[in-house]
Design goal:
The complex is a heterodimer of chains A (about 800) and B (about 725). Chain A is built from 29 helices and 16 strands. Chain A is an alpha/beta fold. Chain B folds into 4 domains: about 140 residues, P-loop containing nucleotide triphosphate hydrolases (Rossmann fold), CATH 3.40.50.300; about 90 residues; about 220 residues, P-loop containing nucleotide triphosphate hydrolases (Rossmann fold, 3-Layer(aba) Sandwich); about 190 residues. Chain B is built from 27 helices and 16 strands. In chain B, the strands form 4 sheets. A 6-stranded parallel sheet of chain B has the order 3-2-6-7-1-8. Chain B has a 6-stranded parallel sheet with strand order 9-16-15-10-14-11. A two-stranded parallel sheet of chain B has the order 4-5. The longest helix of chain B is centred in the N-terminal third of the chain and has 22 residues. Chain B is globular and about 85 Å long. Classes of the chains: A alpha/beta (about 800), B alpha/beta (about 725). At the A-B interface, α4, α10, α19, α21 and α22 of A face β9, α14, α15, α16 and α17 of B.
Chain lengths: ~800, ~725
């Protein structure tokens, strides 16, 4: 059903020419190649809003598929702004923004029975999946102790070195190989049984494929035992469900008559297949991406060629969005030069294909989203040879100078790896510089679970003053942002941890109120004096000790916490702390009385007192529900086991929670005056006034040259083989069924070139995050095998010096 | 024949086979008329024992019981109000010697009627070995749900009227998914047959056997039929759309034989399809009645609410052809927007806060009595119930929540009693954890806090030779005694001595043990249940549950479990001591595994003074209109989607499902749409003034749930009725 057009929907966007063309989309297939900062998210949101307003019925949705969780929130809120017809209606209707995983989950959750899953099937997250995988790998290694010998370099190793390889390095590599192998096999929709059968028939020995397939079989059994699926299964099963039931697929097609796909350059084979099925032969599909920003290819089937091929299809309307108002012209020039140099001059011929030769065009005068003014001086490529520590110091010093003068500006430090990011955050913390970490998962899930776990631990061991102190700290966690309050909380927690008899604090008898004495600044002889040494550790009179007592019970009369030292007079005079301790006592008493409630009700009771933010309360509610399910499954579990489960659940469910800032959309503008530390991958789609790019050396950005080192080529493996890639090559051979095509080493070489190309695009992504200022540095890495500046860095530096004199 | 005026049908003659089929929407006054008919019959001198009021489930009998309790009725009005299950059981009990043998039982022994929970007990004994041998490995499902679905299949076979050995075949014929499931259906069938065999061997009659014996053996028996038809000359059959096919079969034969009958059909209901209800079969009874009366108007809902109901149903049923009698017929005169308030929140707890705030505002500022507000969700988990109840309590709003299936083990008082039972029965070899003991002591001893309870437990509780034991308080060092306090130590000592004295004697029946422990110790001053009425109530339920378990299972346990001892129906000592020991353990096992649930938790009822918090279907079957309804979790798929039950299927195992037809996606969609329409209509016809719709983008489970079918339907209504 088509509704009358509404021309007001794009009122917040004054579109450029290419944008206008996109916004006039009426149906069919359209491909958009967009440069960084061209406003593709903005225009895609406006298009989605227009379609919601004009082209769909109430039981339909415009489906927007994007790459990462952080983009989901961004899209959703932008679309909401553009929508004009929500007045008086239920809001947030008519569109659905999903990552591929989220979409797969929606599909599978709708018909779990179709693919053999129960209603309440569990999704095993990366961490638990990793544990299952590690178990499978170790089991395999135990039964194949000599598997390594085939690949070990001929170097002489000392006994100790050999042991290290066998016990640590080889297992780590084996896990990497297995993880990549299983992921690829799932992408190819191949089960372990099929692969093992194929190996039987294959004329040559493919040891890495055999290893991968055997571990894969064990891994799948591990998942099945837990009644779960991993994220890769979820996607595979979503496609399976669409294949199995055409009626189901048709219903979803009706529901999602328009599919808009962002970041299509990182689309994987399965994603393309799922979306192709949902679109159908004559459906409406808009794919937007930038082939020059494809940075998720390693170990996946993602490939920018899917987008390129789509753009070239005859039935696809192809549009380019070349204008970008994000960066100042000098930064644009640098990014464009990187593309030109790579395409024309990169020393590796293969790497020259890394980019599509597509220039970013600054906006024309009068553009509503103009570029910042040109400022060549704000682009600095620091050629100085830094050690890793010195590089961090230089960046931190620079920030310390710059931040006070730019309290309203945004700044990011972008690094190639998480590990480097943590080193930077440590240095920032030491320098007293305010920062936000955008490295791994954000912390709210962990924090909520952590706070609850601390309180539950205190409830599980109610006589422990140390756990009581930890619960107090958890309750007062907001104090840590204020040095004065933080100190007071620390002191009070310390005081609590020395409370000799917790019952005298929490449930005092008339003459034994520990808090009353503490509050009075007294150090009474009976408060804090603890027990006489001979009584400590034995609740029974001597005659009973040893008379039929199990060893575990000797000493149980008094936990070690009770034998704490007395209070020093100077710690007891905190009259401001006393009301806090009194308040905490009331809370603990209430919580202790609630301890007999089922776990979900206990957690909800705690949450009401511990959390105030909507996200935290929502998360606590979810944790309550999840722990209740765990408790039902394990009726013998008590608080200690449930506390442990709490931690596991918090890890497991994170991906779909939508409770972290990462999930709701990270907005750099919300962090003015703070330093955002992120990986270059996580920075995709974001922009800052000033950007530091660190570690641009030939280890993190190799160029397929002889002197380059590759993280994937392990020092103990012969012939610099990249065993992960060799394993995947063997898997491909097996899949294609072409006997004799495997040649050892070819995959390793190919991987070098692919990696080189991907890292070039990563550098391009990093550069194009900067609006006004860009600083690029490099470091020498480990002294044992010092790194050089990355070849593209040298090229950019040389060009920039020549250009700016 | 002219259609009589509704009022006149109350007074139709009570001789000469006057049968009337009364249909209409909910809230039209049908049950009121039926109750008046009942009163009229009694007032006209019809003996109460000649009247049978027939309802599909006991909760729907409320208005009749209420009428029968009024003082102005003639004395001795012993009207029977039954369900088909109750009638079957009564008849089986009465005519047992006549049909036991032909039904496959041992006629020399009396029948043992199983409750749902004791049936679950016996079924669990069948299923567990199957599970251990690798059955059901293709489905991920908790054993309790496995058990209940197999029982459900047996019941469906009985109430629909097909042979019990056809269950798997019917399910397989309709299955369109992965072929691995076919094997699972066979395994479930095998368990059902083994269970049936156990029942026949031990004269156990679960619900399915009660129905089958009644329908296949008793009803055809002239003596039984003469008894029933001769005694009950007047039938009042309410909510016939919610009854099962075999009930309709009986009525087909009964209606021509009675003096008078009033058969009441609620036009847009049929909520018990999952329990075998057959609205089509119920409607077909129209042809068995001489007169038809149709009421068209809902007298409860305001015109605005009616408009909202009708428009929402119309928008939910887009593309679906509702049967004429299911489609709302009333003309829309109101403004649906005027009857609707809605709010969308990001997170679920924010939505709950809004609900609590709005209710508080309604009660405080608009003077709405709390009893006129119902908060409804498709599913009501404990966390949601607890959360909302607490929020309302904080506003000072009384709330009564319905807990559909709370297991006994979740009651703290029950857990306390079970822990103490384990300590009192060292021969069981069940050693509670230190946490359980500390919690039990905290519960059992008045004023004993958790810190001291743990301290005390750490010192006195130990496991010796695989058995739990408590040490005396007296020999503790004075320091420890002081910490615990002499007062609390004295109470502990009293409890310990009681347990010790009990353990020194042969064990008694577990329900007697609980009863004594409660009466002699825990309810006494100084002990935890003395002032705790809730604990006392839970204890009473546990005692009742244990007693029923003993009475049922005690008769068969030596045969079924291989326990030593002879059959026993009472008394203690000697072999029976072993029996009670074994039986007690079995019972505690079942409670701890959550098999024994729900049945003994206080039966719910809607309070006039409290906000009613319940699953939507519970509210429907309670059949009590309110002024204001809150529908929370409105985006949930639960408003239309049935719970995926891998071993059973309510539609495929119904009478109307054609054999050999596949259950497809479009069947599922049609069923879902019909479900949603019925639910919306049923709820709104029980809502007088206003509906509040609460949505959260992120649902209770942490997944996005904004785009469910209900908000989509509501959105259409809103769009069609723009704001002024």
């Amino acid at each position: 059903m088509t509704k009358p057009p509404n021309h007001q929907t794009t009122k917040q966007l004054i579109p450029r020419l290419a944008q206008k063309e996109i916004l006039s989309y009426a149906g069919g297939k359209m491909g958009v190649s967009a440069v960084p900062g061209s406003g593709k998210t903005h225009v895609l949101s406006a298009l989605a809003a227009r379609l919601v307003d004009e082209a769909i019925d109430d039981d339909q949705e415009v489906l927007i598929v994007t790459l990462v969780n952080s983009a989901v929130g961004n899209f959703a809120s932008r679309i909401a702004i553009f929508l004009t017809r929500e007045r008086g209606l239920l809001p947030r209707f008519g569109y659905r923004v999903r990552t591929l995983h989220g979409l797969a989950h929606d599909i599978v959750r709708e018909r779990p029975g179709l693919v053999g899953l129960a209603d309440d099937f569990q999704i095993v997250d990366e961490r638990e999946a990793r544990q299952i995988l590690e178990d499978a790998v170790w089991a395999w290694l135990h039964t194949h102790p000599d598997a390594l010998l085939d690949f070990l370099t001929a170097d002489e190793f000392s006994e100790g070195m050999l042991r290290r390889i066998r016990d640590r390095d080889w297992p780590e590599l084996a896990i990497e190989i297995a993880a990549a192998f299983i992921k690829r096999a799932k992408d190819l929709q191949l089960g372990p049984e099929y692969l093992l059968a194929s190996l039987q028939e294959y004329p040559d020995d493919l040891p890495l494929a055999r290893m991968g397939a055997e571990i894969y079989l064990d891994y799948q059994r591990g998942l099945a035992y837990r009644g779960g699926v991993d994220f890769d299964d979820l996607i595979r099963l979503a496609l399976r469900a669409l294949e199995l039931d055409p009626d189901f697929c048709a219903r979803l097609r009706h529901r999602w008559p328009y599919i808009l796909e962002d970041e299509a350059q990182d689309s994987s084979q399965l994603q393309e297949e799922i979306l192709r099925r949902l679109v159908g032969p004559d459906g409406n599909w808009v794919r937007v991406g930038d082939p020059n920003q494809a940075i998720y290819e390693t170990f996946t089937t993602a490939d920018p060629r899917f987008l390129r091929e789509f753009l070239n299809q005859p039935d696809v309307k192809s549009i380019t969005m070349p204008d970008s108002g994000r960066s100042q012209p000098s930064i644009i020039a640098l990014a464009n030069y990187l593309v030109d140099w790579t395409v024309n001059e990169h020393p590796s011929e293969i790497a020259r294909n890394a980019f599509r030769q597509q220039h970013i065009q600054p906006t024309l005068p009068g553009d509503p989203q103009p570029n910042p003014p040109d400022n060549p001086a704000a682009v600095r490529l620091v050629a100085r040879k830094f050690t890793p520590d010195a590089e961090i110091k230089a960046v931190v010093d620079s920030l310390a100078r710059w931040l006070p003068e730019h309290p309203d500006s945004t700044v990011a430090v972008l690094v190639p790896r998480n590990k480097r990011g943590f080193e930077v955050t440590r240095a920032l913390k030491a320098a007293g510089i305010d920062y936000v970490e955008l490295l791994r998962s954000t912390t709210s899930t962990r924090e909520v679970a952590g706070v609850l776990a601390n309180v539950l631990r205190a409830l599980a061991d109610p006589g422990s003053s140390k756990k009581l102190a930890a619960a107090f700290r958890a309750w007062r966690r907001a104090d840590r942002d204020d040095p004065e309050l933080a100190e007071r909380t620390a002191n009070l927690a310390k005081l609590l941890s020395r409370c000799p008899r917790v019952e005298d604090y929490l449930w005092p008898r008339l003459d034994r109120d520990w808090l009353a004495h503490v509050g009075a600044g007294l150090a009474p002889d009976h408060v804090g004096a603890g027990l006489a040494p001979d009584h400590v550790g034995a609740g029974l009179a001597p005659a009973h000790v040893g008379a039929g007592l199990a060893p575990a019970h000797v000493g149980a009369g008094l936990a070690p916490d009770h034998a704490g030292a007395g209070l020093a007079p100077d710690q007891t005079g905190d009259r401001e702390g006393s009301p806090l301790l009194a308040e905490f006592r009331d809370l603990m008493r209430r919580w202790q009385e609630a301890v007999v409630l089922p776990i979900d009700q206990l957690i909800l009771t705690l949450a009401q007192d511990l959390f105030h933010e909507a996200t935290d309360l929502a998360l606590a509610h979810k944790l309550a529900v999840a722990l209740r399910a765990a408790s039902d499954d394990h009726p013998d579990w008590r608080l200690p086991e449930l506390v442990e489960e709490l931690a596991t659940i918090a890890r497991n469910q994170r991906r779909f929670l939508g409770f972290d800032e990462e999930d709701t959309g990270f907005d750099p503008d919300q962090h003015r005056g703070q330093v955002v530390v992120a990986t270059m991958h996580k920075a995709k789609g974001l922009e800052w006034d000033r950007v530091y790019l660190m570690s641009v050396n030939n280890y993190d950005f190799p160029s397929a040259l002889p002197h380059d080192n590759y993280i994937a080529e392990k020092w103990f493996v012969r012939d610099n083989l990249n065993l992960v890639e060799e394993a995947l090559a063997q898997l491909n051979i097996l899949t294609n069924g072409e006997a004799g095509n495997y040649t050892e080493g070819e995959a390793t070489l190919r991987a070098r070139h692919d990696y080189t190309a991907e890292r070039l695009r990563l550098l391009y992504v990093g550069i194009t995050r900067a609006r006004k200022e860009l600083i690029i540095t490099w470091n020498t890495g480990r002294p044992k095998n010092p790194a050089q500046p990355a070849v593209p860095f040298i090229a950019l530096h040389t060009w920039w010096e020549g250009k700016t004199g | 024949m002219p259609v009589p005026d509704p009022e006149t049908l109350i007074h139709v003659p009570h001789t000469g086979n006057h049968t009337i089929f009364l249909e209409g929407p909910a809230g039209a006054g049908k049950t009121t008329l039926a109750v008046q008919r009942l009163r009229h019959l009694l007032s006209a001198g019809v003996p109460g024992e000649n009247i049978l009021v027939w309802v599909p489930q006991r909760t729907l009998a409320g208005p009749y019981y209420q009428a029968l309790r009024t003082p102005d009725l003639p004395g001795g009005a012993l009207v029977d109000v039954v369900t088909i299950g109750g009638l079957a059981r009564r008849m089986v009990d009465l005519f047992w010697p006549l049909i036991a043998e032909q039904a496959g039982f041992d006629p020399t022994r009396p029948p043992t009627f199983l409750t749902l929970e004791t049936a679950q007990y016996y079924m669990a004994r069948v299923v567990e070995p199957a599970l251990r041998s690798g059955a059901f490995d293709g489905v991920t499902i908790a054993p309790n749900r496995l058990v209940s679905q197999i029982i459900d299949n047996l019941n469906k076979a009985a109430v629909v009227g097909f042979p019990v050995d056809e269950i798997a075949q019917r399910l397989k014929e309709a299955w369109a998914g992965e072929s691995s499931r076919l094997r699972i259906f066979d395994q479930a069938q095998a368990c059902a047959l083994r269970f049936r065999q156990t029942c026949l061997q031990h004269n156990l009659l679960d619900f399915s056997l009660q129905i089958e014996v009644f329908v296949h053996h008793l009803w055809p028996l002239p003596l039984c039929r003469y008894y029933l038809l001769g005694r009950y000359r007047h039938l009042i059959v309410d909510n016939v759309e919610e009854d099962v096919p075999v009930a309709h079969d009986l009525l087909w034969q009964w209606l021509p034989e009675c003096d008078s009958a009033l058969v009441v059909y609620d036009r847009d209901a049929g909520y018990r399809v999952f329990l075998g209800a057959d609205p089509d079969g119920g409607y077909a009874l129209r042809d068995a009645c001489h007169q038809h009366v149709s009421l068209e108007d809902c007298l409860v809902a305001s015109p605005d609410v009616q408009a909202l109901a009708v428009e929402t149903v119309r928008s939910s049923s887009a593309g679906l052809t509702l049967r004429p009698r299911d489609a709302p017929t009333e003309s829309v005169k109101g403004n649906p927007r005027a009857a609707l308030e809605f709010a969308t929140w990001r997170y679920h707890p924010q939505m709950l806060d809004w609900v609590a705030d709005e209710i508080s505002r309604l009660v405080v500022h608009e003077g709405v009595p709390p009893g006129e507000i119902a908060v409804l969700a498709p599913f009501l988990g404990d966390a949601l119930r607890f959360s909302l109840t607490e929020k309302l309590k904080r506003h000072g709003i009384p709330v009564r929540a319905h807990r559909p299936s709370r297991a006994l083990r979740e009651e703290p008082a029950v857990r306390c009693l079970l822990t103490l039972a384990a300590i009192a029965h060292p021969a069981w070899g069940r050693c509670p954890s230190r946490f359980d003991v500390a919690y039990a002591l905290q519960q059992a001893i008045h004023e004993l806090d958790l810190v001291r309870a743990q301290l005390l437990t750490d010192i006195v509780y130990h496991v010796q030779d695989g058995a739990p034991a408590l040490r005396s308080f007296d020999p503790l060092i004075p320091e420890m005694q002081q910490r615990i306090t002499y007062l609390l130590g004295g109470r502990y000592e009293e409890l310990r001595r009681w347990l010790e004295a009990y353990a020194a004697q042969p064990p008694v029946e577990l329900d007697h043990f609980f009863s004594r422990l409660f009466g002699e110790v825990l309810s006494q001053p100084g002990f935890g249940f003395h002032h705790n009425l809730e604990a006392g109530e839970a204890a009473a339920k546990l005692i009742e549950s244990a007693r029923k378990f003993r009475q049922t299972v005690g008769r068969t346990i030596p045969e079924v479990t291989g326990a030593e001892g002879e059959e026993n129906s009472g008394g203690a000592g000697g072999n029976s001591g072993n029996l009670w020991g074994r039986l007690g353990q079995e019972y505690v096992d079942m409670v701890e595994r959550g098999v024994l649930a729900a049945q003994y938790v206080p039966s719910w009822q809607i309070s006039e003074e409290a906000v009613f918090l319940a699953p939507a279907y519970t509210f429907l079957t309670a059949n009590r209109p309110v002024d204001i309804q809150f529908w929370i979790n409105a985006g949930s798929q639960g408003w239309w989607r049935r719970i995926n039950q891998p071993l059973t299927h309510p539609y495929v195992l119904s009478r109307s499902w054609p054999r050999n037809a596949l259950w497809t996606e479009s069947d599922e969609m049609e069923a879902q749409q019909t479900t949603l329409c019925r639910l919306v209509l049923g709820l709104l016809r029980r809502c007088r003034k206003r509906l509040y719709l609460g949505l959260s983008e992120i649902g209770e489970q942490g997944y996005e749930e904004l785009h469910g079918p209900l908000p989509v339907a509501i959105q259409r209504v809103l769009r069609a009725n723009p704001n002024d």
